[in-house]
From TrEMBL:
<feature type="region of interest" description="Disordered">
    <location>
        <begin position="288"/>
        <end position="315"/>
    </location>
</feature>
<feature type="transmembrane region" description="Helical">
    <location>
        <begin position="216"/>
        <end position="235"/>
    </location>
</feature>
<dbReference type="InterPro" id="IPR002656">
    <property type="entry name" value="Acyl_transf_3_dom"/>
</dbReference>
<feature type="transmembrane region" description="Helical">
    <location>
        <begin position="156"/>
        <end position="173"/>
    </location>
</feature>
<dbReference type="InterPro" id="IPR050879">
    <property type="entry name" value="Acyltransferase_3"/>
</dbReference>
<keyword id="KW-1133">Transmembrane helix</keyword>
<feature type="transmembrane region" description="Helical">
    <location>
        <begin position="58"/>
        <end position="79"/>
    </location>
</feature>
<feature type="transmembrane region" description="Helical">
    <location>
        <begin position="255"/>
        <end position="272"/>
    </location>
</feature>
<keyword id="KW-0012">Acyltransferase</keyword>
<feature type="domain" description="Acyltransferase 3">
    <location>
        <begin position="51"/>
        <end position="269"/>
    </location>
</feature>
<feature type="transmembrane region" description="Helical">
    <location>
        <begin position="179"/>
        <end position="196"/>
    </location>
</feature>
<protein>
    <submittedName>
        <fullName>Acyltransferase family protein</fullName>
    </submittedName>
</protein>
<dbReference type="GO" id="GO:0016747">
    <property type="term" value="F:acyltransferase activity, transferring groups other than amino-acyl groups"/>
</dbReference>
<feature type="transmembrane region" description="Helical">
    <location>
        <begin position="130"/>
        <end position="149"/>
    </location>
</feature>
<keyword id="KW-0808">Transferase</keyword>
<dbReference type="GO" id="GO:0016020">
    <property type="term" value="C:membrane"/>
</dbReference>
<dbReference type="GO" id="GO:0000271">
    <property type="term" value="P:polysaccharide biosynthetic process"/>
</dbReference>
Length: 315
């Protein structure tokens, strides 16, 4: 309900436009290519095909594979713990560490040409460690709050990891696609821990800080549909530019593309995403509407706010 409706609406729009364009040219080979690509993207295996079939959607394919495998993994863990879910969940950090080591080992063991062909970048079994790390953080935050608080206490280290992650794109390709991916999810995970420990950050203080925090939070609300919108507009943009007598200045092209991506993302969210989320809430009501309880903080530091607006702003 969160991912599929907006995904198929955005991708379906691209397919419809491409079919109309190919049919107007009576290009049967193009229609055949569109059909094959549509099948690949509809079952979320596009990240294993080269060249990529709708390039920006490889991340969604990885997410869908993970969302399929994670419940199976948790069910298997529950089965081995004699049906006691609480006991099984205690193994999540161990499994997370095992996945991190295994996936990093796979990346290191892959020949260097894997980085050049993109296989290390796009394929699920080379990237799933980042999603599993998020699961581990979620487990610690909900089930081991004291341990999560001790982790959040090391703010300088978490900030250093986050800052280091920003320099990963400057490294050689082979390093990016091996240790760099690990540093990226550790650094961004550190930001998640810091945000969870201070959900009120930016909601008080100087007005520019408050405005910046709320603008970033609003961008986060629409981030998924903006991502889809920019993917759809990329195809439309290419088609339009090819038909212009002369291309627009690069700065104008980039500004217009960014602005239209945001507009398309907001429109897609209100037209498709939010109605389906309301439908989901009616069909499968949330078991707990309240925000999670505060994470214990070290003495002398501010505790988490309980205002739902704080939690939404952080999200």
């Amino acid at each position: 309900m969160k991912i599929w409706p907006s995904y198929f609406a955005a991708y379906g729009s691209i397919v419809a436009l491409e079919v109309v364009a190919a049919a107007s040219r009576e290009d049967l080979s193009a229609l055949s290519r569109i059909g094959r690509r549509t099948l690949v993207n509809s079952i979320f295996v596009q990240n294993y095909f080269v060249p990529l079939q709708w390039p920006h959607s490889w991340t969604i394919a990885i997410e869908e594979h993970f969302y399929l495998l994670l419940p199976l993994l948790l069910l298997a863990m529950t089965a081995t713990s004699k049906g006691r879910p609480e006991s099984a969940m205690r193994g999540v950090p161990i499994v997370g560490a095992a996945v991190a080591i295994l996936v990093l080992g796979l990346r290191l063991a892959t020949p260097a040409q894997g980085a050049l062909t993109g296989s290390l970048y796009y394929r699920t079994h080379y990237r799933v460690d980042a999603l599993m790390f998020g699961v581990v953080l979620g487990y610690l935050g909900h089930h081991c709050p004291s341990m999560f608080a001790r982790l959040a206490r090391h703010r300088q280290l978490l900030l250093l990891l986050a800052a280091s992650a920003l320099f990963v794109p400057l490294a050689p390709v082979r390093l990016i696609h091996t240790w760099g991916f690990t540093l990226l999810y550790l650094g961004l995970g550190g930001l998640v821990v810091l945000a969870a420990s201070r959900p009120d950050f930016g909601l008080e203080g100087p007005r520019p800080l408050r405005w910046s925090a709320r603008a970033l939070a609003l961008l986060g609300v629409y981030s998924y549909t903006i991502y889809l919108g920019h993917s759809a507009l990329e195809w439309l943009r290419r088609e339009v530019i090819e038909r212009l007598p002369s291309p627009p200045p690069p700065w104008l092209d980039q500004i217009a593309f960014l602005a239209l991506s945001v507009v398309a993302g907001v429109a897609l969210s209100h037209a498709v995403e939010r109605p389906f989320l309301r439908l989901r809430e009616r069909l499968v009501p949330s078991r707990r509407r309240a925000t999670p309880g505060p994470v214990p903080m070290p003495p002398g530091e501010s505790s988490l706010g309980t205002d739902p607006m704080d939690a939404r702003a952080t999200a």
